[in-house]
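Record type: ASSEMBLY
Status: queued
Input:
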Amino acid sequence: MLQLAKRMGRAKPSAIMAVAEKAKALKAAGRDIISFSIGVPNFLPGEHVYAAAREALSKDSGQYGSNRGSDALLDAFIAHIAEIGLTGYERKHCSTGIGAKHVLYSLAEALLEEGDTIVYPSPYWTTYQDIADIVNAKAVTLPCPASQNYKLTPQQLDAAMAEHKPKVFLFNNPSNPTGMVYTKDEIEALAEVLVKYPDTWIITDDIYNRMVFDGLGYHNFVHSKPELRNRVIFVDSLSKTYGMPGWRVGFMAGPESVAKALTTLNSNHITNIPEIVTAAAVAALTGPQTVPTEKNIEFQNKRDLVIAAMNAIPGVVCPKPQGAFYVFPDISCAFGKAHGVKDIHNDIDFCNVLLEAKGVACVPGSAFGEPKALRISYTCPTAQLEPGLKRIQEFFAELS
Ligand SMILES: Cc1ncc(COP(=O)(O)O)c(C=O)c1O
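Status: finished
Output:
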């Protein structure tokens, strides 16, 4: 019998999509569903982006493009990251991919041998585990529960680096699923630890770097310790900031050798980002920034609504996120209770019963390595957000 490669036995479809599919099926069956499940930004990038795409279409050369990314796109990206203090990068330090997910997958291929260790804090974005599994790396997660604001401490990092001597440390700030943002001091303290371990690559998957609230600002290890530049790989994307998830544009900036490796992988995988998408991406990065700026304000206001609603529920612990568009309440106070005849033993039961009883879709925290919590993605229209939150409050009130 013909066999698939062993790695396919390790590859799993996304747990987040499973919830979204169930919500979609209920909706198709006529149920009134409010979805707080998938992390789609739910806005469009602005007319100038479409105009650039249309113009590129009218002039389309139909040719292959650069494996690294067009010069115009790389230059736009370099100028873009200079605005957040990541200066001094040149085209040779950068590469592109079909979204940050593809960039991360290529980084795993470029940096990890089978059996190598990759360390990252938990809760984590589900794909980290899946990519590690596919490339057969050993994933070590560092538990960061709600009681420590879902943030990694320097002591935890130091102990893990000393014990596991990882090939890669993967960091995500602002975080999906928690929305937490590290302060300048917190980044500085973690950077102090990282300089002690020169044999570890550092990936900062910071695609939500423009979605930071409360004037906190975005900070990277290279801001605190410029000597880390030869090991830090910064990953970025247009998906969330510009409301362009389907356009599939991701980037990296870091050591020249890594950018070259990704470009080589591109030449064997995707060849290039298409010309029309490239034109739209350049327009998004260099054109008016009204949409991302306005959305940041809107998301901060929505964050406040969600936090107020969650913290009004007795027993729920909800650290206040300062970025992205996720809230990650600890709902373990509901475990061991029942809603009507439905027992709730864990986060998966909770999300299933909540969806069936109240028509609200959230993602169980176990998908992100934290089974005490659930993720609320609050990008839906405000008109749906408030009723959705109210339904969650009612659900808790009805538990016995
Ligand atoms: C932390 C994080 N990194 C990367 C990605 C992937 O983004 P892209 O759409 O650019 O592939 C996501 C998407 O949800 C994410 O949350």
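Annotation: The pocket of pyridoxal-5'-phosphate is lined by residues 39, 99-101, 125, 172, 176, 205, 207, 237, 239, 245, 250 (CB under 6 Å).
Annotation: DSSP finds 14 helices and 14 strands in the chain.
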